[in-house]
Amino acid sequence: MSMVGMYSCCFGNHALFSTGTKTKITCQQQQLNGNHSLEAHYVRRAAILSDLSAGFTSPHPNFGCVLITPSGNVAGEGYLYAQGTKPAEVLALEAAGSDSCLGGSAFLNLEPGDCHGDHSSVSALIQAGIKRVVVGMRHPLRHLRGNAVRALRGHGLQVDVLGEDLQSKTIEEALKLCHLVNAPLIYRAASRIPFSVLKYAMTLDGKIAASSGHAAWISSKKSRSRVFELRGRSDAVVVGGNTVRRDNPRLTARHGGGHLPMRIVMSQTLDLPQEANLWDISEVSTIVVAQRGARKDFQKYLASKGVEVVEFDILNPRDVMEYFYECGYLSILWECGGTLAASAISSGVIHRVNAFIAPKIIGGRNAPTPVGELGMVEMSQALDLIDVSYEQVGPDILVSGFLQPIPDLTPNIPSVDETSAIDPSVTPYESSIIFFYKTWDPYGAFSNFSPHPIQMQDDDGNYKTWSSVEHYYQAHKFVGVENSKAQQWVDQIKSAKSPEEAARIGRSAQRRHPDLVRSDWDSVKVDVMFRALKSKFSIYPHLNNMLVSTAGSVLVEASPHDLFWGGGREGEGLNYLGRLLMQLRAEFIGESPSASRGSESSFLTT
């Protein structure tokens, strides 16, 4: 699928793109007029590049980079494939070759946001001799905002930010595109809930099913393919109990990419069928959220199938989205019925609507509609979409628009570090408990998904490089197993492009073929993890310093789902990853390594 089509499935705005975007472009080829047009053109190009990773791995901030030689030619381009992989700037410089960018310029759609302590993006530009950097927008996350801009300027580079240092109509259009490709991150940072898109297909007379409830198929095959792509761009897909009972969906992406979104079922009473496609978690996990105390026996049944159940005192979309925000989710796709859609809109958690309208009429007084009761009695109360776009998809029309405007990041809010510099009494972290989870968090470098390769010795005494701790850990579930398929998984995990993909392969293989997991895995996995962590924090001095600096604080891996390595939603998890990091911290500070290792069993079981 073309870049235009891929982008429109998320935002539906063809006017911002031209075709043939994968061809490298020079100033002369475009015949651009004026410096502002030039700035806008290359920042737009960086934004388009940044979106190329969508659908291949779990959603993440989108970074693109275009490098221009002093003579005005494109030297190299790159985009971030996933968190934990090479930065866009590094890839662009590798494509450009040595010394070709000396004295040149770099155009970025988004300020670099390196995992804490890892400054490879900034360092790469400095070491390549880049003299000028044009940034589309500052990083939306406050603990990262302005850091890279200050670092680059501190090394003598000229840094211009669209809308701040450069202004014009073409610049405004380029800035809008930068906002669009990272809208999930911007909304998440501003509203403290994941970016949510409501998707539905309806007939020309506004029905999402016949009066009997039959709904297959309203939209065309092309529209359904577009929906698969939408799912591939999302962290999770949400449906209600009615959808599970009526349609028995699978909610898989089926778009050819590697990323499969989590499946979330919202059901207040857990009046759900015993058999459903969503209870099959061999490919992707399912989470059911329900009212506290609902059908305890059915909860046990779901648990036996490997389906996680999360209870809420009062089940409503706002609380559920706040929970998944804390889980680190960036983008959510809602494919629910009218009742849940109305509740989500009323709760203010829906940011965008994608409506597929099929040229069909079904009629029916009791046929369901895409949005239920909102309490509005006059047309003047209707909610207007913003930045509406229209696209023909096969015989259908896709109408897209925002229910809430993209948050304005100006005026520039100082980061925590900047505030601390002004007022030393303001410290970034007041609590004695330090939580970490996603790599973009303040302590994201503690995550196994952080972009820090490690070197580990194998059974033959040879050292091998692993792209991340997660790669090493997932592969060692199958190391030493006398089976060719197990070795294939080891090789596949080792060569995975990102930690997310390594985790997906390892977890899926473990679920599908538990008989091929090494027999001693439960007894050795903690030691496997500890060895990998020790390598990581020994290789990188800045990570070592960062870990030691947390002395006196309790480290908690804030995964609400992994109750072994994480702390759980309400502290019920074992938090083994946090405990291993604290144990490693004690060794680095100077406690006797032999004493520390000798107390491992008692420490980890407290």
Measured between the Cα atoms of the first and last residue, the distance is 53 Å
- Residue runs with pLDDT of under 50 for 5 or more positions: 1-34, 411-431, 592-606
Q: Which whole number gives the mean pLDDT?
A: 84
The proportion of residues in beta strands is 15-25%
Tell me how many strands there are: 18
- Helical content stands at 25-40%
Supply Rg: 25 Å
**Structural class by sheet pairing and helices:** alpha/beta
Number of helices: 22
**Class of the largest domain, according to the CATH hierarchy?**
Alpha Beta
Largest sheet, order of strands side by side?
Answer: 10-9-8-7-11-6-12-14-13
- Report the CATH architecture of the largest domain: 3-Layer(aba) Sandwich
Characterization of this structure:
The chain has 606 residues and is an alpha/beta fold. The protein is 35% helix and 16% strand. It has 3 domains: 3-181, Cytidine Deaminase, domain 2 (3-Layer(aba) Sandwich); 191-402, Dihydrofolate Reductase, subunit A; 416-604, Tetracycline Repressor, domain 2, CATH 1.10.357.40. It has helices at residues 3-8, 27-30, 35-50, 88-96, 120-127, 147-154, 169-181, 183-191, 221-232, 241-247, 296-304, 317-326, 338-346, 416-422, 469-475, 484-494, 499-512, 521-539, 541-548, 576-589, 593-598, 600-604; strands at 64-68, 74-79, 105-108, 132-135, 158-161, 195-203, 236-240, 262-266, 286-291, 308-312, 331-334, 352-358, 386-393, 396-402, 433-436, 454-457, 463-466, 554-557. A hairpin with a 5-residue loop joins strand 16 (454-457) and strand 17 (463-466). Helix 4 (88-96) runs parallel beside helix 5 (120-127) and helix 18 (521-539) packs across helix 19 (541-548). The N and C termini lie far apart (53 Å).
